[in-house]
Amino acid sequence: MLLLNPGPVTLTERVRRSLLQTDLCHRESEFFDVQEEARTRLVGVYGLDPAQWQAVLMTGSGTAAVESMIASLVPANGKLLIVENGVYGERITQIATQYGIAHEVAKHDWMQAPDIAGIVARLDADRAITHVAIIHHETTTGRLNDLRALGAACRERGVQMLVDGVSSFGSEAIDFDDTSIAAVAATANKCLHGVPGAAFVVVRRAALQQAASRTYYLDLARLAKLQDQRNTPFTPSVHAYYALVEALRELADEGGWTARHARYAALSGQVRSGLAARGIDSVLPADESSVVLRAFRLPAGVDYPTLHDGLKARGFVIYAGQGGLSSQLFRISTMGDIHAPDIERLLAAFDGIVR
Ligand SMILES: *Cc1c(COP(=O)(O)O)cnc(C)c1O
């Protein structure tokens, strides 16, 4: 079965085998070597300066990392503006609400790109806003939100950006030189090709210094402090860390994030043109979409369950649209151990279902 959903991904044999390493006590130096290698390699994915940036690991899915980032990095007297144009932006609003974090929402239609001028007006109208949260790749629609324009506006106003990079870290450009970016939250089992259970926040050391402590388990500053001391507060998902380290080694061996970007671009282009030839249109133009995942309109006369079940019977798991989009579109991710011949077989499988 090939997984074409946006994580967890189809594993390479190399990463799968890494799960079978020796049992480790998480309070022994062997585990801390694994933890250290993961942290060092994560900072290295985008070639960041370890004097300025650190990777803080945690056990949980991508949402744990996003929650940790939001709950920890908006200071007690801070205020957050959340850019919403899909499910994951809405999730950040739910997190801010639940923690009682002062926040405003820049709400957009799910099909809309963030309205930068509108967001800038909000920042200017409310100088209490200290942080903006945005989804880099909004997996709801496959849209790649433009961080550059927003970053420029934030820099001018001394506002910091908190980025959900869960489905872009490791495969899309992220300009960490943009001094407005305080942190990027992500996970092992999307573009990095690890297994679920390990997540992380790549955070500026300076931002951690003003961190709030609203959460117990996901307290980013405490996690960072203990990890810096080759320690850990709780039992980590040791095997997921094994797999993350191996996946990061594999990423480096394959040429790093730019090579992964190129690979995804070729595969998603192949899906896009193959489906277009079959009369199935992508929802967004290529230049507004990530290379990681694309959303397509359901072909006339074929509902999602029919398409999903037909493809599954032929060995492929695709992904439904979320919320109100479930009756209109389907999504195909090209993360994981997926190659051009797999996409050819996928397109052939469509021919058996969509006529
Ligand atoms: C997958 C994803 C998440 C987190 O999902 P989990 O199921 O918790 O791993 C968060 N944000 C985005 C943009 C995602 O694609």
UniProtKB/TrEMBL annotation:
It holds the Pfam family Aminotran_5. Its cofactor is pyridoxal 5'-phosphate. InterPro entries: Aminotrans_V_dom, NH2EtPonate_pyrv_transaminase, PyrdxlP-dep_Trfase, PyrdxlP-dep_Trfase_major, PyrdxlP-dep_Trfase_small, SP_NH2Trfase/AEP_transaminase. It comes from the Bacteria. GO terms for biological process: organic phosphonate catabolic process. Its EC number is 2.6.1.37. HAMAP family: PhnW_aminotrans_5. Substrate binds at R331. The modification N6-(pyridoxal phosphate)lysine is found at K190. The keyword Transferase applies. Keywords: Aminotransferase, Pyridoxal phosphate, Pyruvate, Transferase. One of its GO terms (molecular function) is 2-aminoethylphosphonate-pyruvate transaminase activity. This is 2-aminoethylphosphonate--pyruvate transaminase. Involved in phosphonate degradation. It is an enzyme of class 2 (transferase). It comes from Paraburkholderia caballeronis.
